[in-house]
Amino acid sequence: MKIGIAADHGGYELKESLSEFLTSKGYEIKDFGAFGLDNQDDYPDFVIPLANAIVNQEVERGIAVCGSGVGASVVANKVAGVRAALINDHFSAHQGVEDDDLNLLCLGGRVTGKMVAQELIEAFLKAEFTGAERHMRRLEKVKALEK
Ligand code: RB5
Question: One GO MF term, please (predicted)?
Answer without folding.
Answer: ribose-5-phosphate isomerase activity
